[in-house]
Design goal:
2 domains, 3-stranded antiparallel β-sheet, Aspartate Aminotransferase, domain 2, single chain, alpha/beta, Aspartate Aminotransferase, domain 1
Length: 373
């Protein structure tokens, strides 16, 4: 019997998440040397992982024969001290992706709804549908592709268990004011949990909303963070969320045993002490965004305002063809079909950004001559 005859019926409508192309795959496909390829598709840290995190990970490898600490005790207490919260407010995940899945498993079921932005992180919708719940998508129209908080609040009904919100938002890069998010969080009913995705918050730390006092006051809020972006530990898959103890306790019930490996835990603990590196990443990102924006201005292209570690550029004729053309020249970017004529580019090093801009200029020159269409 075919698998679709046995599987849960709602899974037949579940799309498969499409990841960015790995460097080695692209090198083989286009006959390029891997060292010639710049991967600017997945919002990875171009400066590499936290040096302190790497040193701790290497040390932890010597005990790879042992199971990891299933409760992530040391990492939990390190985060609690760093963020000034109680350990029982924290859940550790195999990246923030797993946290989003665990949250959906805990609070969503058939007949429930989750509200999200039209151009929010794809996993919000995937995690919701996986629980056979309804994903309510609120429009985020061009040209700014930002959240409409009033429309999102209006979309909340008695069936809404979760609201997913990110700041800055991925994939658009748009940003909301801290006060607007705080007011929105306060406006939600007690039966609806705000899932605040803070994967890129460290890039705007001084201007980001601090929702921890609201959590302390009893508001149903879950703040999710990751070590993948500013700390550069994407390959190790480790993230965490902070929420009310009672909400955390419910999420812990669906967490798999040993879900975060020892090497990742050790690296994350050390990375929190590497704030000098974090500041270096922020400075590189600020310079890189300025470099890319100046390049787009020279090329006559508009872009979505952003302070995250990526930027969405508009006005790209045939973006899928641009994606393929740039790959052949060694630059991997991320097309955004749902947003129309948009490509998303991770901020790289100065050299990577410059190569991308030169390759994009070649594509634009070709399209003006109809060479690639």
């Amino acid at each position: 019997m075919q698998a679709e005859k046995i599987a849960q019926p709602h899974l037949l409508k579940q799309p498969i998440y499409v990841t960015g192309k790995p460097i080695a795959y692209t090198a083989r496909e286009y006959g390029l040397d891997p060292s010639q390829i710049d991967k600017l598709a997945s919002n990875e840290n171009p400066l590499g992982p936290s040096p302190k995190g790497v040193a701790a990970a290497i040390k932890a490898l010597s005990e790879a024969n042992l199971y990891p600490d299933g409760g992530c005790y040391d990492l939990t207490h390190k985060i609690a001290n760093f963020r000034h919260v109680k350990p029982e407010q924290i859940v550790i995940g195999n990246g923030s992706n797993e946290l989003l899945d665990m949250i959906a498993q805990t609070f969503l079921g058939e007949g429930d709804e989750a509200v999200m932005g039209e151009h929010g992180f794809a996993v919000y919708k995937l995690a919701t549908r996986l629980q056979n719940a309804k994903a309510v998508s609120v429009p985020m129209p061009a040209p700014d592709y930002n959240y409409n908080l009033k429309a999102m609040r209006d979309a909340v009904t008695s069936r809404t268990k979760l609201v997913f919100l990110a700041n800055p938002n991925n994939p658009t890069g748009t940003e909301l004011s801290a006060q607007a998010i705080i007011d929105f969080a306060k406006s939600l009913p007690e039966s609806t949990i705000l899932v605040m995705d803070e994967a890129y918050t460290e890039f705007i730390e001084k201007d980001a909303p601090n929702l921890l006092p609201l959590i302390e006051a009893g508001f149903p809020i879950i703040c999710c963070r990751t070590f993948s972006k500013i700390y550069g530990l994407a390959a190790l898959r480790v993230g965490y969320c902070i929420t009310r103890p009672d909400i955390a306790s419910m999420i812990q019930r669906v967490r798999e045993p040993f879900n975060v490996n020892s090497i990742a835990q050790a690296a994350a603990i050390a990375a929190l002490d590497d704030q000098e590196y974090v500041e270096k990443v922020r400075e590189n990102n600020t310079r890189g965004l300025a470099q890319l924006k100046a390049g787009f201005d020279r090329l006559g292209l508009s872009y979505v305002p952003t302070r995250s570690n990526f930027i969405s550029v508009r006005g790209i004729k045939e973006p899928m063809k641009a994606f393929d053309f740039l790959q052949r020249l060694g630059t991997i970017v991320r097309p955004q079909p749902a947003m129309g004529d948009v490509l998303r580019i991770t901020v790289g090093t100065q050299e990577q950004n410059e190569r991308f801009l030169k390759n994009l200029a070649k594509y634009l020159e070709g399209t003006s001559k109809n060479s690639f269409l």
